[in-house]
Amino acid sequence: MKTFPIEKLFEVINETTEILQEELKCTYLEALAETGDNLFHQKVMQAELSELTEKRLAKKYSEIQLSAYHNEEIRKAYQFAILKGMKNHVQQNHQMTPDTIGYFISYLLPKFMNGKNEIRLLDHAAGTGNLLTTILNKKAPDVNMHAYAVEVDDILIRLAYTGANLLMHPIELFHQDGLGPLLIDPVDAVVCDLPVGYYPNDERAAEFTLKSDEGHSYAHHLFIEQGLNYTKPGGYLFFLIPNDLFETKEAPKLKQFLKETAYIQAVLQLPFSMFANSQAAKSIFIIQKKKPGIKPPQEVLLAALPKLSNKEALDKILVKMEKWFQENK
Ligand code: SAM
């Protein structure tokens, strides 16, 4: 039977992860980060393994050559393994950003950046880094992107670190609260699949305009404010938001805050079929941080995005978007 490259790569990643999981008595995701390190350094890095296990691993790694794969193949094989490890173990809110969303944002980002070829990009809730690495894989060759990833979960940031190494992407990683002070100069663009829910740290929340008047504040509102704080005037922010963002009781404050600080550019509703149920459905929300001399778009780009497989509907939307860009950018 013919083995396709990506399948072979996944097989090696998966089998060596299982061997390490067994030997190191750890979770699949922890073992996956270890095997990713081994693949990157091209040697077995875990000193505590028996000689036999080390030989088994080395033999398995020798079946592939990472340099023979395209970056998208490496990202996908690694992503399949992460999805396997996350199955039943990761809460909905911490899921990896699906590829369709990454592809849409990869298409939109350069259009808004308007020919800029040095871009500093921040994701302050970066998870596994899948959204960032999708964008970095898809960027035009003449564009230099330097990315910053902030994530509070120790295993997810490890996976993001290993993924960035395997793909040779220049991502600086910060293992910390994405709502804490960040040692990052303002960036040209922010991308963030917002963690939706309450932020437990009321003391820190009190430093944000969008803090709640009583009880815990909405983390997703604070993440929008934090994103704006770390964006240069005139920079763009691409958020994945829950569809009911502007319908909750805290929404009026958010609307007022956005009116004062940013220009809303686009709200693109993602196909419902991508989500477990309609309550979980999300949109891509694009804003520009205000800067003297910059005008708002004549009209906000509003669209319901079709499934990527629905070529006819997709072409129609792309034509509508192109027209919007011509008239507004
Ligand atoms: N884009 C990511 C990817 O492709 O893997 C997925 C992001 S996921 C929807 C939201 C992430 O926010 C989760 O990884 C979660 O651990 C992280 N998160 C939640 N609260 C956070 C906080 N206060 N600071 C930093 N990260 C946080």
Description:
This protein has 329 residues and is of the alpha/beta class. The protein has 2 domains: 6-87, DNA polymerase, domain 1; 99-328, Vaccinia Virus protein VP39 (Rossmann fold), CATH 3.40.50. Helix content is 43%, strand content 19%. The protein is built from 11 helices and 10 strands. Strands 3-2-1-4-7-9-8-10 form an 8-stranded mixed beta sheet, sandwiched between helices. Helix 6 (130-138) links the parallel strand 1 (118-123) and strand 2. The longest helix is centred in the first third of the chain and has 20 residues, at 5-24. The radius of gyration is 21 Å and the shape is globular. The chain binds S-adenosylmethionine (SAM). S-adenosylmethionine (SAM) binds at residues 94-97, 125-128, 130-131, 150-153, 156, 177-179, 193, 195, 219.
Q: What tags apply to this protein structure?
A:
329 residues; alpha/beta; DNA polymerase, domain 1; Rossmann fold; 8-stranded mixed beta sheet; two-stranded antiparallel ribbon; 19% strand; DNA_Protect_Modify; site-specific DNA-methyltransferase (adenine-specific) activity; EC 2.1.1.72; SAM-dependent_MTases_sf; DNA_methylase_A-5
Architecture of the largest domain, CATH level 2?
Answer: 3-Layer(aba) Sandwich
Count of discrete domains:
2
Query: What amount of the residues lies in strands?
Result: 15-25%
How are the strands ordered across the major sheet?
3-2-1-4-7-9-8-10
Largest sheet, if any? 8 strands, mixed
Assign a percent range to the helix content: 40-55%
Number of helices: 11
Bound molecules: S-adenosylmethionine
Cα-atom radius of gyration? 21 Å
User: What is the N-to-C order of secondary-structure elements (H for helix, E for strand)?
Assistant: HHHHHEHEHEEEHEHEHEEEH
- On the 0 to 100 scale, the average pLDDT is 95
Class per helix and strand makeup: alpha/beta
CA(first)-CA(last) distance? 51 Å
Here the CATH topology of the largest domain equals Rossmann fold
